[in-house]
Amino acid sequence: MSSKPSANECRIAVSSMGGTLGSKVGPMARCTHFLIFEGSPENYKVMECRSKGAPNEKGPNAAQNVAKMQVGTVITGTIGPRAYKILKDAGINVKAGCSGTVADAVKKCAAGKLKECKGATYAGKTI
User: Fold this and answer.
1) pLDDT over threshold 80, residue 54
2) What is the mean pLDDT of residues 21-45?
3) In this structure, what DSSP letter does residue 31 have?
4) Burial class (CB in 10 A: 0-12, 13-18, 19+), 3
5) pTM for this one?
6) In this predicted structure, what is the pLDDT of residue 122?
7) Region label for 88, one of left (φ > 0), alpha (ψ between -120 and 50) or beta (otherwise)
8) Counting beta carbons within 10 angstroms of the beta carbon of residue 11, is it exposed (0 to 12), middle (13 to 18) or buried (19 or more)?
9) What is the pLDDT of residue 123?
10) How many other CB atoms are found less than 10 A from the CB of residue 14?
């Protein structure tokens, strides 16, 4: 058997407050962009978050969009319970509680310094 990771496992999505490597890692429900990395920190593309203007359900909508991108890992600041469940059900590892720049978060992930979270890191609020 081969121990080579699948293409999806090598793809990482980072929720970001901008479209550059120097942008801050943002919460899943409030990010403006996703930076999608494939294979190395130098190989990435920028995707605008389609749910950023939605009046509600921003986190779950963002999670559904990310799940369609066929990534293996999502790095984010915070994530709510519904968004977390969507990603986990899609087989995506979630690394939440991250801060700093996108570049720093990707380097930490590549070095194995980011822990996988075991549940939502933001409970949201009921109105």
Assistant:
1) no
2) 92
3) -
4) exposed
5) 0.87
6) 74
7) alpha
8) buried
9) 65
10) 29
Residues 97/117, Cβ–Cβ less than 8 Å: yes
- Cα(89)–Cα(53) distance, rounded to whole angstroms? 25
State both tokens at 91: 């087989």
Gap between the Cα atoms of 85 and 103, Å rounded: 26
8 A C-beta contact, residue 15 and residue 101: no
How far, in Å, are 1, 43, 67, 95, 126 from residue 87 at the CA level? 27, 23, 6, 11, 22
Helix (H) or strand (E) holding 78: none
- Is residue 95 pLDDT above 80, yes or no? yes
pLDDT in tens, 68-90: 999 999 999 999 999 999 999 99
Three-state secondary-structure class, residue 107: helix
Alpha-carbon gap, residue 52 to 32, rounded angstroms: 6
Catalogue the E-assigned strands of 6-120. 11-16, 33-38, 40-48, 73-75, 93-95
**What span, in angstroms and rounded, lies between the C-alpha atoms of 14 and 63?**
11
